[in-house]
Design brief:
Elements: E1 19-23, E2 27-31, H1 33-47
Antiparallel strand pairs: 1-2
């Protein structure tokens, strides 16, 4: 019986995995998780009372307006 090769794909559960985001000026870029958390927190602070409509991380597949 042949053994399969180990899975080398990135683990989506890894908290240190970079986040791929779309940038208007640079195209797709990777951002480290700590920076992404600061950006999301700043956006939530500006939005006032947080809810799912103003949460920038609620649906990351949706294109921003």
């Amino acid at each position: 019986m042949r053994r399969s090769k180990p899975d080398t794909r990135p683990d989506w559960r890894d908290p240190n995995m970079p986040v791929l985001v779309q940038s208007k000026s640079q195209g797709q870029i990777y951002i480290e998780p700590e920076r992404w958390q600061r950006v999301a927190k700043a956006r939530m602070d500006v939005a006032g009372e947080p809810n799912w409509r103003t949460d920038p991380t609620y649906n990351l597949r949706r294109k921003p307006k």
